[in-house]
Amino acid sequence: MRRNKKKKRLPYLPVILIAGILIGTAGYSAVRFSSPSMLKAYIAAGTGSCQTSPIFCMAPDREITIAHIDKEYLAELALFRFKGLEICMPKDFTVVHEREHKVFYKKWKRKTKSSTAFILIQSPDYFINLFPQVGERGIKNDYEFLERTMSANLNAIKNATDAFFVIVKGIFIPDIGNQKTAIMARFAMGKWKGFINYNLTPGLNYFDCSIITEQGRFYKVYIKDMGAKLNTDKVFSIISTIKIK
Questions:
Q1: Residue 101: CA atoms inside 13 Å, Cβ hemisphere, count?
Q2: What pLDDT is attached to residue 143?
Q3: What is the per-residue pLDDT for 29?
Q4: Distance CA 162, CA 60 (A)
Q5: Mean pLDDT of 67-77
Q6: pLDDT, position 45
């Protein structure tokens, strides 16, 4: 068993300001009559286009069902324990239990010299409570919030709600290397379901996992795999070891 570094209190910025304006009651009233072309241009100018950030025009295009976990691989992992959380990872990994306060805003793009995993845990209905206005737009739970986020498309914006989810997508998905070669997928693992964005490159793999548990908890696991030792099967095995204490 390994005890890793203390939780890092990160200097999170204020809540997604532009997104909040777009989806908020007053802001929504101000922009709801904007044309789709104006909204697209506004977002492209502020956050990037599909040319500079291809992820803005990508969406999950495959389904992954995890039928079994590789128990032999689990035996090779080390236990990392934090207050209220346990997870198994390769022994040479640095594991960071992220903390955020009040709002979810963090572009996880870190310069790390070793393989690193960042883990964030949130209580049920986190996004629904953070952005209650989305309920008025037909979003009933956090999984639907994630679905709208991952499927958001800059070129398909028709209204302020579409624009909101494109902005959230740009913030929510961390560094996954060259986005042109990245893969976005939905997955189901027993009673857990969610989304995985990954990029397998020579010498460095990226995995961005967003999970909703049967209790409705939200887990975010972001892995930078220096040396490209992991694949999706191993990542799902790692995810399966998460325990909340």
A1: 8
A2: 98
A3: 46
A4: 17
A5: 93
A6: 77
Question: Is a pLDDT exceeding 60 seen at residue 57?
Answer: yes
Q: Give the chain's domain count.
A: 1
Cα–Cα distance measured from residue 144 to residue 135, given in angstroms and rounded to the nearest whole number: 10
* Residues whose CB is less than 8 angstroms from the CB of residue 126 and which lie 6 or more positions away in sequence, other chains included: 104, 142, 218
Separation CA 157–CA 162 (nearest Å): 5
- Model confidence at 47, pLDDT cuts 50, 70, 90, reads confident
At 148, give phi and psi (nearest 5°).
-65, -35
Q: How far apart are CA 149 and CA 195, in angstroms?
A: 10
Domain that holds residue 41: 2-244
Q: Residue 52: CB partners within 8 Å, gap ≥ 6?
A: none
Strand pairing class (85-89; 243-244):
antiparallel
Q: Which residues of 131-170 are buried (b: 16+ CB within 10 A; e: fewer)?
A: bebbeebebeebbebbbbbbbbebeebebbbbbbbbbbbb
